[in-house]
Amino acid sequence: MSAPASPARADATLEGETLSVQLAGDWSITGPRPNWPAALAGRAPKRVVLGSAGLGQWDSSLLLFLFEAQQWCRIVGAHCDIKALPEKIHALLRQMSTSHETSVPFDRSENFFTGVGEATIDVWRKTKVFAHFIGECVLGGVRLVKHPQKFRWGDFIEEMQLCGAMALPIVSLVSFLVGVTLAYTGAIVLRQYGGDIYVADLVGLSMVREMGALMTGVVLAGRTGAAFAATLGNMKANEEIDALETLGISAVDFLVLPRLLALGVMMPLLAIYANALGILGGMAVSMKVLSIPPTAYWVELLTIVDMSDMLVGVIKAVVFGLIIGLAGCLRGIEAERSAAGVGRAATSAVVTAILLIIVADAIFAVAFDILGL
What we know:
The protein has 373 residues and is α/β, with parallel strands linked by helices.
């Protein structure tokens, strides 16, 4: 015979300004259980510590009690400490917090150094997850080299079309307008000194070395990176990724590598195309505003832009494409199993990709300056 269930209890003890609540017994949604107002008993502590003392079986009733305690602490500005509870409860409470959107203010009563430490630990944890995912992708690339016949080449070609050819209209518009903007901005200063012709140098170097790859990366981060995260997040919500893992199929090999390699191949091509459109936009402004013939503009451009500048832009574009693919696929695989989770994954993928692109661009600027490129 199974042991009789012990009643659920929440023993609250006030010591100074700290309310210690020890949870015990078996918590069942269908049985009698304490609620937070009863445990609080009209007291107004500055700190609430929740712990476990003989906690037996529990279900969502315990989570509702803890969630109510956390919400009360946030409203009154008290600090809620649940570190002594099992890690499984922490994970479920985090899911409840993300699925119950409220206007309750965040708990800001923690010590400043405690908050900084927890944020540092969170950044370190996310860095480890990202590094682990990169390692899995590298191992997947090694398996691709060893067994190319197992790679999904059809998906690779389809993704090349989606992130390459289908992105041409928006990349064309953005790149042309960036070239026009650079030319107008340069003309404001250069025409004061009679250096109108050097607008070609400004637009050419800016587009080839920097703006072509950077603006293409930003556009694809918002377009393709978010699409990758939404697609994989939806597959996770539908348990399709779990089904692949159950069948012994690596989700990285099956889903991530085709998308990652497609972006790595198409990004430099799109960046070169963006360079051409940006230079064309600068040429149009030079011809209409500065009365510089297209032939003179082109000849001046060739005196300043060489293959090393093209190489710099192509290297940046390849790295930016891999960053976008990694960020989009990682956020999609990590997405919560809900519609809201898929939306948050898409948003996080865009933010992560753009942030890493800016960081990588700054690193490239320093590295290329050291190398003399």
